Amino acid sequence: MYEDLYLVIPYEFFYYLFIFFLLGLVFGSFATALIHRIPLGKSWGVSGTHDVNARRSSCPQCKHQLGVKDLIPLFSWVFQGGKCRYCKVSIPIIYPLTELSVASIVSLVYILCGMELATILIMVSVPFLVALTAIDLKFKILPNQLVFIVGGIGALYVGYVFFVGGADIRDQIPFLSDHLLGMLIFPLLLWGIGKLVTFLLKKEALGFGDVKLYAVCGLWVGLAALPQMMILSGVFGVTMGWLWRMVKKDTVFPFGPAIVLALLTLVIGQNMNGEILSLIG
Ligand SMILES: [Zn+2]
User: Which domain holds residue 30?
Assistant: First the structure.
């Protein structure tokens, strides 16, 4: 019985799963840097500042600059017992949890969608999507730079499928127009719904960041997936808003996390069913 199982799942699968999990931890540590730097207006990339010290990570408590030993995702936290090596102050569990959740999503993308350039692009967008979620929960904003980066990766993803998808590029024009129309119609519809809800409830229902993120979603999933996107983000939004109210006693729940979850679910679903992968062949 175990031999059969061994035949069905080749060991390469577990080998790559391990590699993608480690890659996901590195992405997770990058997401943590985004979450803590972007709301403060600090640089997180290679450009922006020539001052190396401003880019280096340091302990928020004692300001001691962190070395390689302190920056290994997840493992540093575990082996240091969740404390800073220098001042022994506890490092919040949200750091390793963020790393673990990014690594889990990246691994899930590998398990469900396999190893294709299109799915690698989904993985690359995960740290930015997780950072959007965390920053929206904490500050109720969706930073433009993160929304644009996820849109840029979406453009690469759509462009890749368009150019590589068919023997004849003309066969791919419906695919391309569906995704470009999605980018236009998704935000218009959400903006309209937001205006209507604001009118009915007489209070601001949606931020413009949500509308921009919806444009990015339309580019990723295409106009044909509009009903699914509406239903999923609506159901996730209501569920998460209810949980938020129970746990945080806060009546204003940001919509961004629900949009991100709906986007990931749909993009993974489209690649899992082979809709996109069959186009690539
Ligand atoms: Zn410290």
Answer: 1-115
